[in-house]
Design a protein that fits this description.
Length: 190
């Protein structure tokens, strides 16, 4: 069953399938595959679903899969996300609101991405990882452990490099709040 909200546009040659609910005012680019069966060998065709919120931009050649019954059976994408071309969002992922997935960002199954997080181009995220609110993963990075809120990580095996100061400023965090977050980072990582 497919439900598509008002004013959602879908590009040519895109495939929307499975039990998928898409909210209002979304823009889906050409050749996207939305609601495909999970890439999980345990999946045997059980009914699972994909829920996508409102006002998301999902660009060309993106793949977003439904969940698996072994978990909650749902993949969820929040609202106001910017998902660039060739992104893959695996089964059972939970993506918050206002995130940015740069081109070719790939996240495996069971990944949680917090609000306002940014994933750089060509990054890879291992399964069962949590990426915190306002965190940033650098381009071409491989993330194999959780990334705490507010932290920037990068590298072929991503390691923390500080907090996401520019992102926090853009979102209206005060100098005092940023200073406190810097102090917390130093306590945890230095």
């Amino acid at each position: 069953m497919l439900r598509i909200g008002a004013r959602t546009t879908i590009g040519a040659h895109s495939i929307l399938e499975g039990v998928t609910t898409i909210g209002v005012d979304n823009r889906i680019g050409h050749y996207a595959v939305i609601g495909g069966a999970p890439q999980d060998m345990k999946y045997q065709g059980e009914p699972t679903e994909l829920l996508i919120g409102d006002r998301n931009t999902i660009r060309e050649f993106t793949t977003i899969h439904t969940g698996t019954v072994q978990d909650k059976g749902v993949t969820r994408i929040g609202s106001d996300n910017w998902i660039m071309s060739y992104v893959h969002i695996g089964h059972d992922c939970l993506v918050g609101n206002h995130t940015i997935f740069s081109s070719n960002a790939q996240i495996a199954g069971h990944v949680t991405v917090g609000d306002w997080a940014i994933l750089g181009g060509m990054c890879g995220v291992h399964q069962f990882i949590q990426i915190g609110t306002h965190a940033m993963l650098g381009g071409a990075s491989a993330l194999v452990q959780d990334l705490p809120p507010f932290v920037i990580a990068a590298g072929d095996k991503a390691v923390p490099h500080g907090i996401n100061v520019e992102g926090l400023k853009r979102r209206g965090f005060s100098p005092s709040q940023i200073s406190h977050l810097r102090q917390a980072y130093k306590i945890l990582y230095k």
